Amino acid sequence: MKLVVEVVDAHDLMPKDGEGNLSSTSAKPKTSITKPLKFLCNERRVPTPGQHFLGSVRIPCSNTVKKGKAAYQRFQLEKKWFFSSVKGEIGLRIYISPDSEPKSPQPQTLTLEAPPSKSHQPPEVHKVLSHSEVFAAVPTVSLIGNSSARDPSEETKEVVTFHHLQKYQVQQPAGISVERHCQGFPSSMQPVRPQGPHSHEEDYDLKDTNPQLGERWPNGGAYGGRGWMSGGERFASTYDLVEQMFYLYVRVVKAKDLPPSSITASCDPYVEVKLGNYKGRTKHFERKMNPEWNQVFAFSKDRIQSSVLEVFVKDKEMIGRDDYLGRVVFDLNEIPTRVPPDSPLAPLWYRLEHRRGEGKVRGEIMVAVWMGTQADEAFPHAWHSDAAAVCGEGVHNIRSKVYVSPKLWYLRVNVIEAQDVLPNDRSHLPEVFVKAQVGNQVLRTKICPTHTANPVWNEDLVFVAAEPFEEQMIITVEDRVHPTKDEVLGKMSMPIDMFEKRLDHRPVHSRWFNLEKYGFGVLEPDRRKELKFSSRIHLRVCLEGGYHVLDESTMYISDQRPTARQLWKQPVGILEVGILSAQGLLPMKMKDGRGSTDAYCVAKYGQKWVRTRTILDTLSPKWNEQYTWEVYDPCTVITLGVFDNCHLGGAERPTPMAASAARDSRIGKVRIRLSTLEAHRMYTHSYPLLVLQPNGVKKMGDLQLAIRFTTLSLANMIYVYGHPLLPKMHYLHPFTVNQVDNLRYQAMNIVAVRLGRAEPPLRKEVVEYMLDVDSHMWSMRRSKANFFRIMSLLSSMFSMSRWFGDVCNWKNSMTTVLVHILFLILIWYPELILPTLFVYMFLIGIWNYRFRPRHPPHMDIKLSWAEAVHPDELDEEFDTFPSSRPHDIVRMRYDRIRSVAGRIQTVVGDLATQGERFQSLLSWRDPRATSLFIIFSLCAAVVLYATPFRVVALIAGLYYLRHPRFRSKLPSAPSNFFRRLSARADSLL
Fold first, then answer.
1. What is the rounded distance in angstroms from the CA atom of residue 159 to the CA atom of residue 105?
2. Helix, strand, or coil here: 192?
3. Strand, coil or helix: what is 682?
């Protein structure tokens, strides 16, 4: 059913500019308009210049009649506010039509265009709503008049849209334009493109969505009439950030007393669940009369093709067709409905029936059948009907899972000294250094500067270790006998868990460890007894629990807690994310001669990773999965990525080499900073999935999310904003920049390896993409983007300097006079300077509140400098490290970097020159300049001591604000003196 609104006419409208002439006649419903009017139904927006509000009408839909009974009605126009000068009436005809119209695939707004004609009635405009929206909307009709002068030959447009109540608001379609000839018949229909500087830019914008989330879930199922809820009740579910998805769940628990085969005197039973064309089966047991499966099958309600559910028990045969042992049939209209947190439905025993309905047979099966949603506990581990084609290992790779990053520690090894280190060649003075290895991480100290048998280093070597500690730390003392050859003089191996865990900066006790002579042991057991310990080494080793182990870029950090749980603070909020769906994904691979995508989404915040189900063979997957994180710091970022699953398996078992070669393709990534979210507000937006490719930026689709950030305590939130960003150990004993980069890279490798060992694995390419493993690599595009970010920050300073220059040059006399007055007030009352400054910032903040962002920021292609990037720069960005391009291309890029670095070198040199000129004021590098400056300093000291500060400030301010008539175009004397000072640039080679 559709709601139809016919806009017939309007009477006695009041023009806002006092020049319009609006009249109407009662003999024939028509509106004579000398200036164009636009009829608009409650489109909430800021009127554009030249448009004026003429009135609105709110009409309840409770008394709407059917088509054929509708009557022409006039409604008095209402005021927008109390002092509005609004008058007039609008004529409407409203009714419900049973006619159904095909839904447009794209959101559009119906726009009818007609030239003004006095001999013809204005075209009637119809706007239809679906039946589900009729009783959820209160139409509001608004009239907006355009007072700008137009040519009489221009067309008159009448636009009708609807704006629903916010709770039931749906996205309205984009415009359809219908052009009419003078007779009023349509000549063409085409979409009206939105106004904007570039039409393609809107594809990269964040879009508002209004999905039917859990808080508005009605009981609209076609089944479950015998369930526990009446039709008017709502589902009480914690899944309030996702759309409801109904599933028919079948839990096959076990069977008993099954009849044996007449040939083998036993049976190999399995169960087949059939619903329409969908069949799911359990594994079979050999020679078992009382099998237990405990397996769940889930059938999507949208794909149910039958009114009965059949559960067959079969006996697997090696040769020929499997034998039927019996079946159980369920009527879907009698299936109960279950909603968590209700307890699971208890399974029941059912006697098996003959498959032809000829009565009961031997055997019973325990089954539970219910209608539920994705909030059910059985959903993640169930067999799904939409993934029936997946088999083998692919079944595990499509399930949703939650992963936890391994607990990472910094392992600090302080190498102090060694004793009795004897080289193999006694005539050679040892050049000793220590090498430590933990897993794949290898670090070494410097060579001891004193060539002695008791070397001293006192160096720190820092590694990343993950619980459970599986690797051992191997320490070797080596001698540099040749620039290309090192000899091992001693070796030792220790488990990591034997070392002390330090939570603060207090020193730990050092220990002496004995070194084994390298080469002794298995090959020479006798000599090992003689020389059991040839030397020893002094170490201070501890596991640092007061640091946060960085496994992601500090710009997109999602967790800042220290490793030791004892140092954690209480959470300040809760982050809830509903991963709804994706729209318009591009095909990522070919399947049966056509493009296909098997998409899943991964979200990472803190130590918790989540992975949604893989939705097979669709470009618009719907996940509707909700996850929750504890928030310990709001200044963090959650990262969500969409990937194409390439590990679904097939009819044939893939080889290990082929399975390892397959990589999940990246579709796009979204970052959301929690500090940009308002507390207790639900954000429902569609985020563009943008990927930078060698041929440029490309939109891969849209990811629809629902996000809510809930704060637990305002006092804790205020405390967090004044607290250091990282744990205090990062400031008491900081790491160098190189150490941070190396440790982060090692931490990312450890996390990727550990998550790759899960079931299903979160693969290395996914983890690296989520953690931005290549963010430190050189990119000309990223360098340009950062440069223009700096310029945008400095632009306000440049604008302020230009404004001050205009004030000094009296470009605007009124502004200059006001600045003089303000300057004199501040000179007379200097205690008002700081209060005025802070009041000014307060007023600016209040003024900017009107223009605050209404949605979280997203990937910006302009800020990323991805629109106008040169193809060669993109090819350089996607090049491997080390480079794999031809030598001539590498040489050309090297020359380009040299030219860019030359400009930077010039700027840095100029900055150094200015600084050295300041130093040369008192350094007597130029004796005459220094003499003049110190004499000037003495005179200035005497004058400033004798003159009040207010007088000095007044004279200086009036001098800088003097009229251009008293200015010279030549540089000032202080500027000329400063530029003549010498620098050290003339001493450079």
1. 20
2. strand
3. strand
First-residue to last-residue Cα distance in the chain = 86
Whether pTM > 0.85 for this model: the answer is: no
420's tokens: 């009795």
Residue pointed to by tokens 């709407």: 64
Using alpha carbons, select from 449, 448, 459 the residue that is nearest to residue 413. Answer: 459
- CA dist list (Å): 289 to 270, 329, 365: 11, 22, 12
Tens of pLDDT, residues 802-857: 998 888 888 888 998 998 998 888 888 888 888 888 998 999 999 999 888 888 88
> What is the C-alpha separation between 227 and 370, in angstroms, rounded?
9
The closest alpha carbon to 216, from 238, 231, 230, 234, belongs to 234
Q: Are 696 and 877 in contact (CB under 8 A)?
A: no
Long-range contacts of 592-599 (CB under 8 A, 24+ apart): 597/621, 597/644, 597/667, 598/398, 598/644, 598/645, 598/646, 598/648, 599/642, 599/643, 599/644, 599/645, 599/667
Write the DSSP string, 272-328: EEEETTEEEE----SS-SS-EEEEEEEEEGGG---SEEEEEEEE--SSSSPEEEEEE
Give 897's contacts (C-beta < 8 A, 6+ positions apart). Answer: none
Distance CA 457, CA 459 (A): 6
Contact 544, 411 (CB under 8 A): yes
Residue 507 preceded by cis peptide, ω within 30: no
pLDDT of residue 518: 61
For residue 383, what is the enclosing H or E element? strand 383-384
∠360-366-370 over CA atoms, to 5°? Answer: 110
Closest CA to 349 of 367, 372, 375: 367
Cα–Cα distance between 208 and 683 in angstroms, integer?
9
Report residue 129 as tokens. Answer: 């709503």
Half-sphere exposure of 306 (CA within 13 A, CB side): 15
CA distance 255 to 544: 55
Euclidean distance between CA atoms 853 and 592, whole angstroms? 46
- Residue 184 Ramachandran class (φ > 0 left, ψ -120 to 50 alpha, else beta): left
**What is the model's pLDDT at position 222?**
38
586-618: burial string, b at 16+ Cβ within 10 Å, e else: bebeeeeeeeebbbbbbbbbbbbbbbbbbbbbe
- For 599, the enclosing helix (H) or strand (E) is strand 599-605
- Distance CA(710)–CA(628), nearest Å, equals 11
Minimum mean pLDDT among 97-101, 136-140, 194-198: which range?
194-198
Report pLDDT digits (tens) over 410-437. 999 999 999 988 887 777 778 899 999 9
User: Residue 152 has what DSSP assignment?
Assistant: T
Q: Residue 43 and residue 28: Cα distance in Å, rounded?
A: 29
Looking at residue 216, what is its pLDDT?
44
Are 691 and 697 in contact by the 8 Å Cβ rule? The answer is yes
Q: What is the three-class DSSP state of 59?
A: coil
Whole-angstrom Cα distance, residue 277 to residue 345? 26
Angle at 57 between CA 53 and CA 61, to 5 degrees: 150
Q: What is the DSSP string of 906-922?
A: HHHHHHHHHHHHHHTTS
Give 397's contacts (C-beta < 8 A, 6+ positions apart): 614, 645, 647, 648, 649, 760, 761
DSSP assignment letter at 809: T
Beta bridge partners of 465: 409
Cα distances (angstroms) measured from residue 42 to each of 139, 144, 981: 8, 10, 70
- The two most distant CA atoms of the chain are separated, in Å, by 125
Asked if residues 255 and 291 have their Cβ atoms less than 8 Å apart, the reply is yes
* Beta pairing class for 174-180 and 108-114: parallel
C-alpha dist (Å) from residue 248 to 370, 379, 385: 6, 10, 10
